[in-house]
Sequence to fold (74 residues):
Amino acid sequence: MQTRPYLKPELSTSDKMIEAAGWLCLVCLWIISLEGYDDLPEIIPTHFNASMEVNDYGSKMTMLVLPVILPSPF
Fold:
């Protein structure tokens, strides 16, 4: 089996700024999610159909899943 070389390109200044902005947004989302957790009702809508009608509910714990499933900035 042939091994391929691992190339790690040099990041430009704008690339580093974009990556830092991605990390900052991720941290902000976690802060907002954790700070607002106590103010949420116990049962929240989790899914809407095309007519914007609620067709699924879940516990407020599902709000903590959002920052986890977002693509990481790295």
Q: What stands out?
A: The chain has a mean pLDDT of 86. The beta strands are 43-48, 54-59.
